[in-house]
Amino acid sequence: QFTGLTSNSTTFTAAGQLNTTAVDINITADGTGAPVDLAGGADLNGRDMTLIVGGDVTIGAAVSDGGTVRIQGTTNATTIALGSVGGSVVDLTETTLQQIDGTVNTIAIGTAGTQIGLVTINDGGAAQVLTLNTALIIDADGTAGGNGSVSIGSDITVAGEFVINGSRATTTFDGGGSDGTITIDSGGNDITINDTMAFANDDDNVAFISGGGNVSLLGSIDGVAGAGEENITISPGDGNVVLGRSGLQDDFGTVQRL
Asked: How far apart are CA 190 and CA 209, in angstroms?
């Protein structure tokens, strides 16, 4: 048990549970491969945990009772992947992410305000689902030295709000074409895409299911040239829908029809 924990090293391994009582946990491990292994999980007692890493993160037991768990690279250009389709500098499997349980308020990915490395969400294609136990925020809104971007290649289900903060260059929905659909389901919570959006392929689709939460698509999205059609389906239940940013000329299918 700790009164907070700050660690700066090449690797960090904890076989037992981390337990903080009053101060946040901050771990920096700049080694490559899999520099952070939290085999025993963590009890955050209402505090936050930040992992700044040069490679993969493995969590082997529950991370619970926290505010925000943020995972980011050692540089703002670090690429990060969520789901079973890796290939990034930091790969976070669904198994690892599901250890962060519903008593944690939010999982945050990327370096807020400066992330320019691509963030990929793909748990095996549009027929598969990345399922998380809490809210998910993707920060890919850096613009210095490059532009942050997000690629979504599988369905996403979260038990909390779903937010992308982008750089305007761009959040892409990759349903694989052939009328494939990417579905984002927030389980009754808000969905916010604060970015320009695009389809990866002709005949891709995207569906937003908030079930009572608000859906805010705060940026333009156009279709892809070709014989197919791209569709956006919004199912807010009793929630509100906001298309575009106030006072700005965001377009929906104006440049290329959906």
From this structure: 9
Q: What is the pLDDT of residues 14-61, one digit of tens each?
A: 999 999 988 999 999 998 888 999 999 999 999 999 999 999 999 999
Cα(98)–Cα(129) distance, integer angstroms:
13
Rounded CA gap, 220 and 170, in Å?
A: 10
Give the separation between CA 48 and CA 61, rounded to whole angstroms: 17
* pLDDT tens digits, one per residue of 98-113: 999 999 999 999 999 9
Residues 6+ apart with CB under 8 A from 218: 192, 193, 194, 195, 242, 244, 245, 250
Say how far residue 26 (Cα) sits from the centre of its chain.
Answer: 20
At a CB cut-off of 8 Å and minimum separation 6, what does 63 contact? 38, 41, 42, 44, 49, 69, 99, 100, 101, 104
Torsion, Cα 52 55 60 65, to 10 degrees, reads 20
User: pTM higher than 0.90 for the full model?
Assistant: yes
Rg of the chain on CA atoms, in Å: 18
Determine if the peptide bond prior to 68 is cis (ω within 30°). Answer: no
Of all residues in the chain, what percent are helix, strand and coil, respectively (each to 5)? 0, 40, 55
Strands 181-185, 155-157: pairing is parallel
